[in-house]
């Protein structure tokens, strides 16, 4: 049956919807316990310099190993964590764990590079964010210049003034900032030059059909040119083919990340692998 809700909008109560609501509740309850039950883990995906063909960074990506449901993608539980506020403890766990691993790898003699951690909108707005990050850097001993935080345009744009203040405080600590999924949100180009950022990451949706020409190729070229003219590093994510790689390199994109180079990898054994981490192919 349908229940009228305003003009032209109907809410349908179907068994599927019911089931989904129930699922979400169950999922939320188990997500609450995921940290203490040690079900979260991080994978790390390398970023490579396209000109020098060497690794320049690692992005930490969270995974949830659910005992019954198996591996749950962050696309499924991060939005839920964001809605329920669970992103605060989860985000803190991610930061601490990424910094701890990275400190260990650098100590083992891994080539100096940054570790990038995703910050969701709610985390970026968290009142004690600066203190929390400072405490984690102290505790793990990771020098701040080795940490990069990825924030999205939408986290910044709903209150530009306070976002700039937060970004400045982080930058003053020595932490680097990158704008994630650039081009997919609405950021104002006039704001961009006020942001104390180091890097733009071109959204995967533009890279996907790059070599077909058309709009996405034009947008990608524009983002590369914009980043370069502002003195920012530019990273393309989601590179899957050599054609995409050649295209990006030719247009001056600095760095790349994607399945062509490597999938996100578990922490165990990563440092050993990074020793001779040169893409197997020439480009
Ligand atoms: P993102 O930050 O845009 O991360 C990149 C996503 O693209 C990752 O998915 C990665 O595995 C995937 N990817 C990388 N290269 C390729 C490629 O060549 N082809 C394709 N098809 N995909 C590629 P993942 O790990 O499933 O993460 C999805 C999203 O979940 C992330 O998107 C990010 O928004 C969020 N996320 C992941 N970990 C965290 C976290 O620790 N905190 C927060 N707040 N969000 C996270
Ligand atoms: Ca990211
Ligand atoms: Ca991204
Ligand atoms: Ca994304």
Which structural class do the helices and strands define?
alpha/beta
Largest sheet: 8 strands, mixed, barrel
Distance between the termini: 59 Å
Largest beta sheet: what is the strand line-up?
A: 3-4-6-7-8-9-10-11
Q: Helical amount among residues, as a percent range?
A: 40-55%
The Cα radius of gyration reads: 20 Å
Mean pLDDT: 89
Total E-strand runs: 12
Which stretches are low in confidence, meaning pLDDT under 50 for 5 or more residues running? Answer: 1-10
What's the total helix number? 12
What distinguishing features does this structure have?
283 residues; alpha/beta; two-stranded antiparallel sheet; binds ligand C2E; binds calcium ion; PAS domain S-box-containing protein/diguanylate cyclase (GGDEF)-like protein
Characterization of this structure:
It is built from 12 helices and 12 strands. It is an alpha/beta fold. α1 crosses α2 and α3 runs parallel beside α5. It is globular, with a radius of gyration of 20 Å. One calcium ion binds next to loops.
Topology:
Blueprint: E1 2-4, E2 10-12, H1 15-34, E3 40-49, E4 55-66, E5 70-72, H2 74-84, H3 87-107, E6 114-118, H4 121-124, H5 129-140, E7 147-152, H6 153-157, H7 160-173, E8 176-182, H8 189-192, E9 199-202, H9 204-208, H10 214-229, E10 233-236, H11 242-250, E11 255-256, E12 265-266, H12 270-275
Helix pairs in contact: 1-2, 3-5
The structure holds ligand C2E and calcium ion (CA) (3 copies).
């Amino acid at each position: 049956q349908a229940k009228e809700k305003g003009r032209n909008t109907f809410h349908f109560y179907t068994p599927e919807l019911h089931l989904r609501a129930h699922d979400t509740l169950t999922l939320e309850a188990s997500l609450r316990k995921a940290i203490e039950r040690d079900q979260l883990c991080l994978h790390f995906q390398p970023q490579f310099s396209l000109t020098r063909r060497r690794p320049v960074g690692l992005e930490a990506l969270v995974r949830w190993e659910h005992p019954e449901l198996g591996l749950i993608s962050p696309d499924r539980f991060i939005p839920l964590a964001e809605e329920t506020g669970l992103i605060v403890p989860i985000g803190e766990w991610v930061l601490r764990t990424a910094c701890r691993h990275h400190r260990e790898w650098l100590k083992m003699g891994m080539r100096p590079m940054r570790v990038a951690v995703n910050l969701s909108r709610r985390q970026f707005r968290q009142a004690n964010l600066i203190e929390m990050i400072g405490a984690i850097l102290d505790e793990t001993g990771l020098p701040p210049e080795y940490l990069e935080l990825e924030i999205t345009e939408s986290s910044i744009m709903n209150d530009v003034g306070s976002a700039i203040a937060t970004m400045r405080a982080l930058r003053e600590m020595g932490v680097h900032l990158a704008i994630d999924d650039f081009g997919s949100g609405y950021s104002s180009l006039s704001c961009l030059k006020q942001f104390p950022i180091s890097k733009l990451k071109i959204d995967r949706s533009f890279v996907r059909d790059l070599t077909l020409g058309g709009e996405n190729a034009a947008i990608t070229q524009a983002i590369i040119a914009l980043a370069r003219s502002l003195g920012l590093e530019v990273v393309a994510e989601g590179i899957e083919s050599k054609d995409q790689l050649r295209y990006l390199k030719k247009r001056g994109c600095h760095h790349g990340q994607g399945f062509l180079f490597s999938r996100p990898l578990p922490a165990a054994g990563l440092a050993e692998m990074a020793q001779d981490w040169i893409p197997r192919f020439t480009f």
